[in-house]
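Morning - zinc ion inputs below, output right after.
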Amino acid sequence: MNIILIGIQGSGKGTQAKILENRFGWEHITTGDLFRKNIEQETELGLLAKEYIDKGELVPDKYVFEIVKNALNQAEKGFILDGFPRNIEQLKFLVKNFEIDSVILLDLTDDKAIERLMARRICKICKKDYNILFKKSKKPGICDVCEGEIIRRDDDNKEAISKRIEKFHNETKKVIEYFTEKNLLIHINADQSLEAIHEEIVKKLSV
Ligand SMILES: [Zn+2]
């Protein structure tokens, strides 16, 4: 099964991708991970990409496409694409080269996403993540693992969060439109428990 997973930050997208990967063997693929892996392994494409990243420039699409294509071709049981495609060029490349079975959209209102992101916390010392809404530490403000202080990340302020949400909508609008027209878009209610979200996905994919 080849899937694209779309969800606003705070929708639990990464967690859902991991659960699906573990259960069905579809590979969870994000461009960030692919770049890291290729740079670590010093592949030709990794080294090329690194030159741009080190200069603080965007990696040209042709290299991104090569890296994505290699990874998708190697995903024998299928893939869950996360954070790609982000624009029309990437979308065209993807549908030209690969069969997409379903596009899952985790529905969460902007207000809910903001509420969840504002509730995120992290341990200052060991970086374990918490959420004061649904992933609390045993003692308030103190890390369960190392007893470090639990703080809010700098980039989880309202202004930064709103900017990320706006960027998300800009990047995904055309992609969502395209797959809606192709009748491949599946809406999932992301305002429920992790287990319930997962079961809704499985049911709607009929797997
Ligand atoms: Zn800690």
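Note: The helical segments are 13-24, 31-40, 44-54, 61-74, 88-97, 110-118, 158-181, 194-205.

O.
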